[in-house]
Structures are given as C-alpha cells and as structure tokens.
Amino acid sequence: MATSSVQRPRFNPSNSSCAHDVRPLHHDVPSLRNSDLSPSHFRFQSLVSCPADVSLELFEAAVSQLIHHPEYNSTLILRSETISDSDTTIPTSAPCLEGYYPVRNVHRKLLPRRPGRDSELEQHCTLYAFETGEFAGLPSMLILTPLVPEGESLPYYHPMVSHLAFRFLPSSITTTSDSASAQPALRIEVIPLPGTPTDPNSRLYRTALALLDTLHRYLWGALTHYQKRVHHDVLIPREVYQDVYLKMRERHKGIVDTWRETTDPLKHVFEDIGIATFLMLFWKDTFATSADLADVKELDDSRWTSWPRPSGGFLDLGCGNGLLTHILSAEGYSGYGIDLRARTSWAHYPDSSQAALKVHALDPTQLLSPGSNNDEENAIWEPGVFLIGNHADELTPWLPVLATLTGASGYLSIPCCAWMFDERFTRSSATSGLDFSDNELSTEAEDEAVFISSLGMGAEGTSKSQYSTYRIWLARLSRWLGWKIECDTLRIPSTRNWAIVGRERLPGDQSVFVDRARRIVEVVVRRGAFKTRTPEGKGHDEAS
Questions:
Q1: 3-class DSSP state for residue 295?
Q2: Residues 44, 46, 48, CA angle at the centre, nearest 5°?
Q3: What letter does residue 186 receive in the DSSP assignment?
Q4: What backbone torsions phi and psi does residue 320 show, to the nearest 5 degrees?
Q5: Whether 488 contacts 235, CB under 8 Å
Q6: pTM tops 0.90, yes or no
C-alpha cells in the first residue's frame, strides 16, 4: 500500500506526570535538566506524551511548521516574522541541557491578531541534537523561549512558561525494562512560571495537549508528503495583506453593529472587508508602473488614496447587499454595484455609496445587438472597467466573456453556485458544451495534472467533486478566451474562497479571442434558454 494512502495513526496522548494514567507509555526518560556547565539551576516538568509513529529524521521538517506558522495553533496570533535564523549564533537565553547541544536558533516575532488587546512578543526557537549515541547530531528537540521585556508580562496567547520543549525520544532510549515494547515518543515539557497550574484541567496542560497533537499531525504529514488542501497568498504576500486588512477592519468593523440584513454580519462584513483589501492590493500591483506591494507605510497618513487603480473603475456584478461596493467607494475607489433589486442596507449607506448602487438586470446575450446599450449601461461600462463577480452565480461564467468583449482591464471571480451560460453546471453538461481544446496558442499535449496544479487548488485539484470540476472548467474557459490564468485562495471567512483573476492577455491575435467570446453569445442566443430576470422593487422604478 502506498504511504500516502495509509491513515494517520490515532493520536494517543498520556499524562507524563501521572503514574496512574490509563494509557501509559513504556518509557522511563528523565525530564530535561541543566548541564553542569550551566550557571542556572532548573528542571523541566514533563506534561504530556504520545507515540511518535515516525522516524526522527522527520522531526526538523515538522517543527519548522511550528516555528513559521504559529497562527495554525492559535486564533489570537496573526503570524510570525523571522528576525534571524542561525546555526552558529545561539543566544545565551537558550538553556544548556544535559545530553544535548544547540544546532540552530530562529529568533522570531509573534504578531497578535488584535494589536489593541495583545502585545507583540519576541521568542527564541532553539533546535537541539543529542551529543552522543546513535542519533548524535540529528535535531530531536525544539525549545521555545519567550523574551519578555523587564516590567512586562506574557501576552494572553502565550503559555505561562519561561521555556517550552518539544522532545522526540527515539525507541532506543524510551524504555529501561521491556525492550520489546520500546517505541519512539513525543513529549512536551515546560518550566512553568511560579503559581501556574499544570494539572490536566489547567489551561497550560490543554495548550500542551493541543501542541502535541499538532506536532504529531505535522510529523505524519512529513512522512506522507502531505499536500496542502489549498494554496493561499499566491498573488498578494501574506504579510502585506494582513497588515492592510487589520487597518481596514478597524475602519469598517462598526458596520457589524448597524447591520440591516437578516444574514450573519460577522461573516459578511469581514468577508467583504477581506475581498476589498485583496482588490486594493491587487489593483496596486496590477496598475502600478513599478511593483511595490511592501510599501504600506503611507496608510497612516494618506491611506491609499494615491494607490493605482483601474482607469474605468470597477463593476460589481450581482452585488447583493452592496457592502463590497460601499467599502470600495468609502475608500475612494470609483465604480458601481448592480443587482436585480435593492437591499435594505442600500438606503443606510452614505450618499456616495447609494449613488454607486444600481438596480439593473444585466443581459449578456444583448452584447452583440446594435444599439442595445442605453445611457445607464454606457455609464457603468466605462472603458477599462474591472469586473467583480463575488458569488455571482448565473453571471459567473460570463465574467471572462464580458471582460473580453468589452475590453475590460480585468476581472475577479469568486465562484460559488455552479452555472454554465444558460443552465446549471453538471459534469456531463460540461463535456457536451463548448469545446475549449482548440487553443492554438497553447500546447495541445499539455499535461492535465500540470494545468490543474497551476490553479492553486492544492489537494482539492485531485477531487472529483462538482465544485472542483467547475473551477477547472472556468479556468479552461478563461484561458480559451485569452486570459492568463491566475488563481488564489482568499483569506476570508467562507468555504467558497477560491478566486480566479484575469489581468493579463495571452499573446497573439486578440481578434481570435474576441471571436470566441462572440461565438459563445451566439450559441446561447440560438439555444434561447437564457432568461434575464426582471428587476424588482422601488429601486428599479426610480432608476428607470
């Protein structure tokens, strides 16, 4: 059986400090203690252990995840930033331990998700190896040492300890009585701050248990060459996005308290703040004369009023509650949001946002009809407009078509419900629809796996689900219409957070791509199945 198909062994922890634990490990390894050369005197307290189930060689790769991604273990941590990484310079604050020597130190800074509530914290992450024996020289332990400024205390997101150790104990040292039962083990040990409880009901013990489970999972992932479910931060660096998002959240979080819809404000408000943040940074990168995404210091003064943006503004198709349009308008971006009916929220936005929201029924099949555009449509279809489709449903497949026919500067599509041009998407209808294989500008023999891997879907790219198949279909459609494929998984509170964007045209005769887009419209018109829904409500009456 292939390694990747083997199920991860059950996480089976035991309380290291409890002699009567119902699931004891067969080991008799003393807790860490300082070496004779150490000027200080201390001894670690063992909290929790579990079988390792893998070899020691994988330990460094697994703890690297712990070092560089602490946010996976705490929702209160935004990320870590590496200050230094050295295998020669070891800080004096790193413990000197009997039987071990330090081989590497990563000095990092932990950034809180809520800067107004929690403070930043620097920390040394020191890797140790055995001094002697079969595994001498192999990293087998990671110790985290917080650096607390004098007179300050540890932030809430950090355990109340002066040191926290992740130990890998090879099978050759985990027993002294029964060699047949020897097994490698993982163990977490700490030096708790005075007065900190360590019993199984304590916060420190629960934190140690969660960290041990994470390490066990990372080790198994290293063994099976784990593939991430999705890939984030492909188009916008994570650090830049998070820094701008925190400022945007502070500016717009008050919308939660004045939410007028029946939907969950915590989801919708922060989701649209995230999408707006992504778009602002994406436009800054796309329309800048020189890329400089790292420069966000100007936010404190002039905010982002001078950032590059699409010359024709934006057009949010199927804008729903209008929140995304409102946020972008509030930040100085020109554009419109259109939908079949006005929502309750629209009337409660500022006048500038209300003016950007239009009740309008978009009919893509009329694009080829001469004189079909009225003054209102001409106003929203500015040359160089950037199209947005956030869960646009029936309009989702039309985004690359519209962008191609109107000469748009690009588009962002976050697909949700699966639609083709005039019917629900199914895997069978996708194969019987338009043929996207006659792309003379790409290699006919392109490997299918290579194309799918380029979509940033991670492990989901191998799924045969309808949603995965739909996203692959959308990507093929976009490329067939002459758009360079770029994808990202947005950091928003939604399970439908995969996005495909078009901002760069493929080389070649652009009339070929325009003819293909026209062919799609002609086929849909000929079938006669596409029905434009009628605009609803007072907003339409006033607009017309």
A1: coil
A2: 150
A3: E
A4: 60, -125
A5: yes
A6: no
H-type alpha helices, 394-463:
398-406, 427-432, 448-453
Q: Which residues contact 306 (CB under 8 A, 6 or more apart)?
A: 298
The strand ranges marked E within 64-215 are: 77-86, 100-112, 121-130, 139-147, 161-169, 185-192
Residue with the two structure tokens 């360079």: 484
The predicted-structure confidence for 330-341, as pLDDT tens digits, reads as follows 999 999 999 989
Which backbone phi and psi does 15 adopt, to 5 degrees? Answer: -75, 110
Q: Provide the token pair at 158.
A: 């950090």
506: nearest Cα among 460, 436, 440: 440
320: left (phi over 0), alpha (psi -120 to 50) or beta: left
Q: How far apart (Å, rounded) are the C-alpha atoms in residues 542 and 537?
A: 9
Query: What contacts 240, CB < 8 A, 6 or more positions away?
Result: 281, 293, 294, 296
Structure tokens at 97: 């331990």
Beta-bridge partner residues of 82:
108
Helices (H), 224-286: 238-252, 265-286
Mapped onto helix, strand or coil, the DSSP state of residue 276 is helix
| Spatial separation of the C-alpha atoms in residues 44 and 10, rounded to whole Å | 27
299-343 tens-digit pLDDT: 554 567 889 999 999 999 999 999 999 999 999 999 999 998 999
Q: What are phi and psi of 538, to 5 degrees?
A: -65, -35
61-70: string of b/e by CB count within 10 Å (b at 16+)?
ebbbbbbbeb
Residue 535 is given by DSSP the state P
Runs of H (alpha helix) within 287-397:
323-330, 351-356, 375-380
Task: Give the tokens for residue 102.
Answer: 């330090």
Cβ contacts of 517 within 8 Å, gap of 6 or more = 400, 401, 404, 405, 481
In Å, how far are 374, 383, 399, 510, 522 from 370, measured between CA atoms? 11, 18, 21, 22, 14
Using an 8 Å Cβ cutoff, are 211 and 188 in contact?
A: yes
Q: Give strand ranges (E) for 415-450.
A: none
